[in-house]
Every structure is written in structure tokens, then in C-alpha cells.
Amino acid sequence: MSEQMIALEESWKAALAPEFSSPYMQQLKDFLLVQKRSGKRIFPRGSEYFRALDLTPLAKVKVIILGQDPYHGLGQAHGLCFSVRPGVRIPPSLVNIYKEMETDLGIKPPRHGFLEHWARQGVLLLNSVLTVEEAQAASHQGKGWERFTDAVIGKVNEECECVVFMLWGSYAQRKAAFVDTYRHLVLKAPHPSPLSAHNGFFGCRHFSKANAFLQSHGRVPIDWELPANPQDA
Q: What is the active site of this protein (predicted)?
């Protein structure tokens, strides 16, 4: 994936160089090329595979929110977990995230689902798998992305201090099970999906807990209130 690596934010480019030179990443690149040549539509676009890393340099990571796969509908995915492009209907899980944010912090839900404002402040919105075929959920699982994003989480765990890990659902909790809880804050709750949000996601107060932890360690808290106009993110 040399062409994507060249464009990658410099701190991540250096930290993840061994991953990009590994055989599994070449195999992943070959898989994606075959998929595209066969006429399959892949989301997000190639320039946005690593958008989460580009917006949140390694040294600036304060919070990690882990997702699983990109949205597989046309026009939705743009490289940040739970986030959708401006003008796209807000997905149900993000609606529930906004509900909890309002209960926790009193922030009125925005009318869009574009989360770059969070990412630019140090919230790494990382999916476990960074690509998907249109209308085919989980179609790129097991192709190598999970190993790559494990390395991303590992770098944050090792090289950053006082990071908040928001782990929503059993998948995210398993993926980040190795995080050093003496150096970082690990917050766990059910997934915000409509199927599970009422089982403990609502009322988890992760947003205020995250900011309290950051402030207690001398870090600037996250402004969770999204701009009314997503273009101001």
C-alpha cells in the first residue's frame, strides 16, 4: 500500500512503517485491487481509508472510539467510525450516541452525523476493518485490516499517555483487551445499536467521564458539541 502510505499523516507513517512493509498488507492491497477490477464498489474511497489517522496524529490522541466495519451504503462511509458525510441520514447507533451525549452533557443532538470536529481534537474514530463492499456488510473482515488496526491500538497503548478508550460492545472490548489500564482509562458499555443501547449504553456517561479523566491528567477536554454546520467541523 505504498501510495496510501505516502499520503498518510507523518507520525502514523513512521509508527506503522513495519506494518506497511509486511506481507499481509501486500496481500490486503492485492485483494482490494482484485475487488475493484472486478467492478465491485468499495467504501470508503481509497483516499479515505486512513482518514481517522490523518485527522488524529499519534501524539494528539486523547480518546479512542472503536467501531467494527464502515457503513456499506452509498455515500455514508468516509473513514471515521460512526460518522457519515454531511447530508446523509444519521444512522440509528449515532442517534443513540447523541441521546446519551444529551443526557450526560446537556448537548442538543445536531442535525448531521459528521464527526470530524471530534477527530480534529484528538478523538481517534477507528474502525477495526477499514473497507467494505457496497451493500455487503462485513465483506472485508478477515483480510488483514484487523491486524493493522490492532497495531494502531498497540501504538497508542505504548506511546501515548492518559488516553480514554471507549469500548462499546463486546467486539470492541475484546479487540482492546490488552490496553494498559494503569496508564489509560478503559470505559466499557453495550453497543449503542438500537438492539442493545437500553442494556446499559444509555446512562453510561462516558463523555463526562472521559473529560474528567483528561482534565485530571492535565489534558484539554473534548468539546463534544458538534458545529451546527458540518462544514465548520
A: 69
pTM over 0.90, yes/no: yes
CA torsion sign, 56 to 62 to 68 to 72? negative
Concerning whether 69 is annotated as a catalytic residue, the answer is: yes
Alpha-carbon Rg for the chain in angstroms = 17
Residues, the chain, total?
233
Options 3.40.470.10, 3.40.1280.10, 3.20.20.70, 3.65.10.10; which CATH number does 10-216 get? 3.40.470.10
pLDDT (tens digit per residue) in 154-185: 999 999 999 999 999 999 999 999 999 999 99
Domain ranges of the chain: 10-216
Query: What's the pLDDT tens digit per position in 5-32?
Result: 447 999 999 999 999 999 999 999 999 9
Among 69, 104, 150, 223, the active-site one is: 69
